[in-house]
Amino acid sequence: MPFIIPMDFSFIPDNTKLGPIFTFAGTTFQDLPGASFPSFVNVNGGVKGLQFADAGIEIALLTPVPWASLQVGQFNAPLTIEGIDSNGTITNTWAFNNPSSYWFVYFTKGDLVMIRCTGGGNEAAIVSLFLFVP
User: Fold this and answer.
1) Is residue 110 scored above 80 in pLDDT?
2) N or C: which end of the chain has fewer CB within 10 A?
3) Which helix (H) or strand (E) is 59 found in, with range?
C-alpha cells in the first residue's frame, strides 16, 4: 500500500545542531564537504527549518521514490536544488535567486534517491520534505 512520509523540523527547538550527518524518518541528511558550520534548526521569517552552509547538504532517501516535495527558504545568495536518480543522473534542477522567500520544489521524475541543495550564502533552509513511497 503506498504512503507518504512527511518530515519537517517544527518540533525541534530553535538553534539545535543536527549536522554534519543525521537520520530523520529513515532519510539521511549530510552536510557537504567544505561546510563552514554544521546544519542546524533555525527560525527565519517566522518559519522553522534546517539551515545549511553554502557548501550544501545531501539528502539520501530511504528508498527510491517516484515523487517528492521539498519546501525551502532562500534568504541570501542563489540556491540550487537537484534531484538524483539511482544511476547518479541529475533528473531535476532548480535555481532560485529571490532572497527572503520560500519555495516548493516538486520532483516528479521517478527513481529519485537523493536530493542535493547547494548555495544560499549560508542562509538557505529546508522547511519540509514529503516522500511518496509506492
Assistant:
1) no
2) N
3) strand 57-65
Cβ neighbours of residue 99 closer than 8 Å, sequence gap 6 or more: 74, 75, 76
* pLDDT number for residue 44: 87
CATH class of 3-133: mainly beta
Q: 49, 18, 23: which is closest to 35 by C-alpha?
A: 18
Residue 50 confidence (pLDDT): 98
The kind and range of the H/E element at 5 are strand 3-8
Q: Which residue has the cell 541529475?
A: 90
pLDDT for the residue 81: 98
Contacts of 128 (CB under 8 A, 6+ apart): 6, 7, 8, 9, 49, 69, 70, 71
Indicate the DSSP class of residue 8: E
